[in-house]
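Task: sequence design from structure.
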């Protein structure tokens, strides 16, 4: 049997459509083009039967046979023509020299909080066996948990040297708690701003902070320097303090709330409230409302992820692991999708208020059919740099020696190691090509790091992650269909501000 993307494992054909019903809407995605269509409910059962019969064939049908099957199931020609058979050539990522646009700087591993689900664990990465072999795996020496301004500047120089023709660059500050190394953060921003005309680029700065050190004065200074700020806050006091206590065990909500209470209105509307949802407190719509009551206009909710490094048993409870927890998460995402639809249709949510929102980003990419993201950008459009100058594909791989791609102080990006990593990434296309959502997802549904830790191979997709991603695609596509019914004349304005879906664009 030919081994290409027209066949599924076992020799049957890949169906021409990926069909699903969500939020009372019927949706079809072409497995060839990735195009998305809202389908009439009365034709949906016939289309499903037609699609399933084709999937059961052992050889590709001719055009006349396809028409015969469509007539047999009474599928209108205008519908069946939307879903041609997948091409015979396996889809591959376009081969080109990577042009980097994003760099993440791990400016500190120190943190004043001890969040229950955090894998960083002050640079120890939440794993006893990892700690025991730390000298073999983690390159930072004791006392090297903070990045110097010099290392940060060399990181920016690396990004500029690798940018190709790109003109919009992103510098993301990461920790630990990045504000514990404010000196390096501010020095980096000033360095970029001072040289942007010489380099003929624009810089966008992203900062995720726990908010305990984000005074109104500091927030005003950062925003004046064009730093976009996301504050991690998991809802009301009871939820937040359970998830995100100080090192001594005391809840951190009062300290953050005091800072937010004193924020000027003009500053507050620029901040993003970023909540991590756990099985213990999965009520996403309630958390959304809590964040709005605190004064946030821009909000991002996302489930806790067991990514980056294996976690301790104590943290297991804070991740969606079981079938029951997975079902709970899907129900909550459905409720949240309906909430977003109502808020958007009523004019209370727009692009500027949803820029950091992953669900809206997914809707946007579906709207423009940008193959969602065209695959993970790790080591292809994005790099991460550790405090000691080590270069990695992304933040998820920080400190893991086998994925170290170079060193700022020892020759920069190692071309051979980089090429080897990209070759491993390329295998995803073979492993994922049989999936009926491949034309749209392009391997985005499963994080490379999660693939590594659960499957021992960055190219082998993680089944549970893919299931959840399919659920989100279904909800996002159905939400688009509903918004197209409710506000058809506003969709372009809703998503058109940034058709390529980049991080870090200027919003105000």
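Answer:
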């Amino acid at each position: 049997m030919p081994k290409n993307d027209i066949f599924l494992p076992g020799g049957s054909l890949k169906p021409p459509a990926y069909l699903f019903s969500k939020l009372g809407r019927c949706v079809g995605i072409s497995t060839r083009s990735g195009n998305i269509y809202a389908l009439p409910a009365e034709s949906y059962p016939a289309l499903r039967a037609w699609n399933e019969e084709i999937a059961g064939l052992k050889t590709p049908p001719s055009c006349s046979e396809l028409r015969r099957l469509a007539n047999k199931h009474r599928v209108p020609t205008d519908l069946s023509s939307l879903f041609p058979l997948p091409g015979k050539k396996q889809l591959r990522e376009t081969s080109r020299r990577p042009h980097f646009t994003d760099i993440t700087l791990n400016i500190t591993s120190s943190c004043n909080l001890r969040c229950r689900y955090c894998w960083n664990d002050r640079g120890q990465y939440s794993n006893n066996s990892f700690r025991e072999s730390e000298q073999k795996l983690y390159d930072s020496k004791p006392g090297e948990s903070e990045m110097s301004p010099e290392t940060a500047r060399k990181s920016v120089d690396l990004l500029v040297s690798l940018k190709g023709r790109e003109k919009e660059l992103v510098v993301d500050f990461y920790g630990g708690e990045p504000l514990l190394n404010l000196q390096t953060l501010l020095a980096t921003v000033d360095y970029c701003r001072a040289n942007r005309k010489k380099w003929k680029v624009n810089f966008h700065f992203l900062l995720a902070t726990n908010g305990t050190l984000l005074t109104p004065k500091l927030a005003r200074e950062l925003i004046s320097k064009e730093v976009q700020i996301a504050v991690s806050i998991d809802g009301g006091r009871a939820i937040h303090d359970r998830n995100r206590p100080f090192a001594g065990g005391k809840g951190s909500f009062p300290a953050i709330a005091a800072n937010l209470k004193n924020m000027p209105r003009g500053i507050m509307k620029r901040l993003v409230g970023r909540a991590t949802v756990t099985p213990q407190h999965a009520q996403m719509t309630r958390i959304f409302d809590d964040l709005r009551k605190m004064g946030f206009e821009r909000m991002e909710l996302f489930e806790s992820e067991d990514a980056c490094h294996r976690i301790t048993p104590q943290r297991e409870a804070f991740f969606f692991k079981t079938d029951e927890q997975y079902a709970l998460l899907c129900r909550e995402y459905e409720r949240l999708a309906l909430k977003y639809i109502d808020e958007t249709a009523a004019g209370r949510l727009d692009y500027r208020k949803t820029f950091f929102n992953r669900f809206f980003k997914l809707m946007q990419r579906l709207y423009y059919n940008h193959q969602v993201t065209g695959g993970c950008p790790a080591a292809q459009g994005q790099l991460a740099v550790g405090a000691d100058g080590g270069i990695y594909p992304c933040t998820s791989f920080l400190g893991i020696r086998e994925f170290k791609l170079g060193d700022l102080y020892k020759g920069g990006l190692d071309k051979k190691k980089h090429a080897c990593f990209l070759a491993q990434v390329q295998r995803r296309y073979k492993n994922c090509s049989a999936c009926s959502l491949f034309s749209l997802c392009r391997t985005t549904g499963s994080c490379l790091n999660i693939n590594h830790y659960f499957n021992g191979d960055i190219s082998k997709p993680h089944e549970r992650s893919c299931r959840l991603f399919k659920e989100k695609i279904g909800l996002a596509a159905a939400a688009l269909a509903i918004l197209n019914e409710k506000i058809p004349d506003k969709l372009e304005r809703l998503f058109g501000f940034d058709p390529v879906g980049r991080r870090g664009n200027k919003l105000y």
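Residues 1-11, 125-143, 504-508 have pLDDT under 50 and may be disordered.
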